[in-house]
Amino acid sequence: MKTNHTRRNFLSSSLASVATAASLAPLSGAASTDIGKNRVRDVVTGEGEFQYKVDHQFAQLPEKYHWQTTHNVAVDSSNNLYVIHEGRANLKDHPSIFVFDPQGKFIRAFGCQFQGGGHGIEIRKEGNEEFLYVAAYQQVKCFSKMTLTGETVWYQKAPMESGIYQLGENTSTKANWTRKGFLPTNFAFLDDGGFLLADGYGAHCIHHFDQDGKWLRLFGGTGKGEGKFNLCHGLWVDQRKGREPAIIVTDRSHNTLQYLTMDGDYIETLTGYGLPANIDIYKNIMMIPELKAHITLLDENNKVVGRLGEAVERVNSVKDLRRKPELWIDGQFVHPHDACFDGEGNIFVAEWVETGRITKLTRI
Asked: What are the chain's domains?
């Protein structure tokens, strides 16, 4: 098993090897020759009760800012959208987090400290206040709790008390792609105020912290499944009605989802995914953004009820499509890296593409 890899090399090899999935419904849309102009606005993706109007240009940055590979999205209780992009280590004065109102109008920007590693972002309500939880990998290697306007509540590096990291990993600014490195990806929240943090690109484990950010324990680690992972990229706590609460993890390099008990013990594996990247839940629907060119929707029994923007064959056939926006087709995704619901069941999608792209799917 190859354990020392860059994200780019991993995705290039994986996209060539994952089998092509069948489309559930034909997508209407036309090829766009300009990323910012003359877009087709009335494209619909999905079928049946899960149909969505597609707007690939929902979030527009002011001219002084630019996207540097969009990664993750989150929505607050006012339906404002928060977007984090990876950024570049040599652009420390450029924000990594951007906020947009429900109409897509830019509100504010902050988070320069995450430049070069911006990755995971989630919002949690604690009492009467909401907070951002941010994970950064690459040269940044940190995780942080912030207010919605960008003030830092706490900022942490590798939890050395876990005993699994290379000496100095909590002070180094060099990305360590071995299993002794700390390269965190995403969060899941617990009812007692604590949270889980996936070290997806580093130790392939999941850390458990209390409500104050104190490290408690870890589970997982590198392996071939059944509680072990090869890139535990995203995670969530599945508390849908009729189900026993459980942790669900996207085991991305294995193209699977793993269910674990709340103590971290293995339950079952769901197969048939194409580089699943993260998870979100709205009422009884669980959503899985897949880097293999679509969004999958599952009901409370984990039956597939929709696949949105599917373009697996196209991603397979067009080399390096993520860098060729002139070849993108409205209504089709390239590499969905994260997706979240708003309070009305609409969906926001962040794609791992070089120019950045944030799409709103408005449910019809």
From this structure: 7-363 (2.120.10.30)
